[in-house]
């Protein structure tokens, strides 16, 4: 790409913060951090499914009923960020005990980097996709619209680091509780051979992602070059003429 254009191209992605995170997030040693981190610290390694469908174009009430029932029937531990639906879920379905908690918000990147998180169920927005790869977490895709569909294809068919939950596109294509329970159990099963390969692939992508962001990596180097050239008013940006 750099060879094709007269103007400079800077490959600065993935554009996410780089954290040196402790394997357990150290939440249990810091009373100022939220309770959900303490709960994550108490769970077995890679046993928790993190569920978050974003803040826009979420699921229908009928689909929400099926997802809740399917998760409960799967017996899988979960951390669910429900935002506006939090109170509804808690009121209608009650406290699900030690196997799961529902919260209105969380520090998603740190959650995905937590050792107890072994999967991410998402609509596949690009930020969430990158953060899952950065955390080395396989993905259950639930695309609804726009780039979510192409991101889901990238995850499932190209990178092969996840399963697709929905057979079609849109909010009206209902996934039943039985389908949900079976898929979640298979996805989170540490003995599943396909799942093991999926986790190996996402760890490989995670390593590539980390290497680009560290000091001297391509993201770090190109971001520095971009800032340097802008601050110096470099000729290759503005040419030899005046900006007037």
From TrEMBL:
Keyword Amino-acid biosynthesis applies: no
Q: Which Pfam families match?
A: UDPGT (PF00201)
| UniProt KW keywords | Transferase
Q: Which GO terms describe its molecular function?
A: UDP-glycosyltransferase activity
What top-level branch of life does the organism fall under? Eukaryota
Q: Which SUPFAM superfamilies match?
A: UDP-Glycosyltransferase/glycogen phosphorylase (SSF53756)
Q: Which InterPro entries match?
A: UDP_glucos_trans
Is-annotated flag, keyword rRNA-binding? Answer: no
Protein name per its UniProtKB record? Uncharacterized protein
